[in-house]
Structures are given as structure tokens and as C-alpha cells.
Amino acid sequence: DTEVYSNTGGQMSKSTPRGAVAKFAAGGKPTGKKDLGLIAMSYGNVYVAQIAMGANDLQTVKAIQEAEAYDGPSLILAYSHCIAHGINMTKGMNAQKLAVDSGHWPLFRYNPALTKEGKNPFQLDSKMAKIKLEDFEYNEIRFKMLTKMDPEKAKSLLREAQEDVMKKWRFYEQLAAMNYATPATAANGH
Q1: HEC profile for the chain?
Q2: Considering the domain 6-180, what is its CATH architecture?
């Protein structure tokens, strides 16, 4: 997921995060990013993982192994740095780590097979944001350029984007805390 239409020139998409500047969003995208992982999880029978190799290579490998082993459809959303982000591409893996550390790209795995064992299918693999969102975003020209063109709008969109990150994090924490034990699995110690 590069968060733009990379193969056709970096146009804004529903995957583009709030505040990013892209073709068709020259003033910064005013709406939040579509949560494709959550949409896929809502089906209840799709293995879904969100990964970023530059942030956690072990979680990446585990997610790929689980997706391959899952008896059904699997979707892996991999954060992918892109020239449209306006970064030094040799530092792409570091950009992935910043995306995760800021909460912009939380890592998780959703394995529906676990529900049959009375276990929560959702595993949140990253920690709460350790850095401010702007410490990630303003390392990329796609976000930083708006601070030069329209500083007030940039501040406003950053504030809203930070709220998006916190809302998503709280929701994911709730998913991770859900109890899937049935009376039968609880009796067996699950």
C-alpha cells in the first residue's frame, strides 16, 4: 500500500491519508484513509494482516506464514514507501518504521481460524504511538509541502489526522481485548 495510485503518477486514492498532497489533492486530502483491513475483517472469513517490513520483520514473516497456512482468502496490507512520498528511497525502511512508531500504520494480524478455538482472532502487534504523527509526516514531502503552501490548513489537517490515528488505535485496542471464549472453550482453559 503506497497510499496513492503509484503506477499512474501518484494520484490521490481512497487509501491516501488525510493531509497528504497528491494529484487531485493539491490542497491536502481533506478526508481520512479507507481502512481496507477493517473492511476485509468484517467478512469474518478472511485472514488479514497489516505489515511493514522496515518496522518489524519478524511480524512480517509470521503474517505471511499464517496467511499462507490459512484455509481461505488472505489479504496482507504491506506499507510500501514510494517515490510519490517525496523521500530519499534509500531510507524507505526507516520511513516504514516511522509510520508504525507514529501510529500511522499499526501492525496487526486477524486470523478467523482462532475463533474456533475460542481465541480472539485479532492480534495488535505494534505498540501505541511513541512519536508524534508530525515526526513521521513532516519527513515526507507529500505532507510537508502543505506547510509551505497553507500553514494553517496543514496544522488543521495534521490535528485531524492525529485524531484519526488515536480513534483507530482505540478501536483496534478494543478489538484486541474482546473475549471470544465460549462456555465450552472456557471450561477447557482457553
Answers
A1: CCCCEHHHCCECCCCCCCCCCEECECCCCCCCCCCHHHHHHCCCCCEEEEECCCCCHHHHHHHHHHHHHCCCCEEEEECCCCHHHCCCHHHHHHHHHHHHHCCCCCCEEECHHHHHHCCCCEEECCCCCCCCHHHHHCCCHHHHHHHHHCHHHHHHHHHHHHHHHHHHHHHHHHHHHCCCCCHHHHHCCC
A2: 3-Layer(aba) Sandwich (3.40)
